Amino acid sequence: MSQFLIADDHPLFREALKGALKSAFAELEVFESDNFDATLDLLKQHDELDLLLLDLHMPGNDDLYGLIRIREDYPELPIAVVSGSEDIQVVSKVMAYGAMGFIPKSSSSAEIAQGVSAVLEGDTWLPSKLKDQVAGLSDDDIGLAAQIASLTPQQYRVLSYLHEGLLNKQIAYELSISEATVKAHITAIFRKLGVYNRTQAVLIASKLQLEPQTESN
Asked: Would you state the pLDDT for residue 77?
């Protein structure tokens, strides 16, 4: 029996995607998560998953961080990103950072089945209209992915709040931790990213933002 994990915060879309998959694949077990932390928990519980279908803008996923983090921790797990955006820069980054497939949410059931089948067979898959447009990443971007992968989810949350311009005490409030803990996280972030101040850290965080964000979620 095949095992898939659908990680998306929209229950109606999860249900529709699950229906499309079950009609195309016999003896299929589908797990579901609606945020990044729940996704990580399910990945730990089910170490024989055949496929992760990952929504880029699910809560906690923080654009590219979720993909980079999961690819680092589970290098053998096939990942297909399911997204409402078809912006070629987004698609290029997603594929370069380790996704094996990119399935637009506007895809038909037949296209979803085709994409999933290709990924399960070890191939990469993109809609035909996007294949010739996808570009590779620079060496700098590849190095950035390795740095970001070294951050823990909590450290990345702190980095995201730095990017939003929050002060240490505001970050502490948002994460329900002490200011001393925030400072410790920031020190670790600076070390892992090879930077020396907030401005440099924020510039790195900006490179991970996916624009335009056309999804409703």
From this structure: 93
What strands lie across the sheet with 79-83, from one edge to the other? 28-33, 2-7, 51-55, 79-83, 101-104
In 3D, which of 178, 89, 169 has the Cα closest to residue 136?
89
Q: What is the pLDDT of residue 134?
A: 67
Nearest to 17 by CA among 64, 66, 52: 52
Pairing of strands 28-33, 51-55: unpaired
Asked whether the predicted pLDDT for residue 212 surpasses 50, the reply is no
Q: Which amino acid is at 60?
A: G
DSSP for residue 215:
-
What is the spatial distance between Cα 56 and Cα 179, in angstroms, rounded to a whole number?
A: 30
Q: 33 phi and psi, to 5 degrees?
A: -140, 155
Specify the DSSP element, H or E, that contains 12. Answer: helix 11-24
Do residues 42 and 33 touch, judged by C-beta distance below 8 A?
yes
76: left (phi over 0), alpha (psi -120 to 50) or beta: alpha
What does the pLDDT look like over 125-166, one tens digit per residue? Answer: 988 877 766 655 555 666 777 788 788 888 988 998 998 899
Domains of the chain: 2-131 (3.40.50.2300), 139-207 (1.10.10.10)
Whether residue 156 contacts residue 132, with contact meaning beta carbons closer than 8 Å, is answered with: no
* Residue pLDDT, tens place only, 30-65: 999 999 999 999 999 998 899 999 998 888 877 788
Looking only at the bridges linking them, the beta strands covering 79-83 and 2-7 are: unpaired
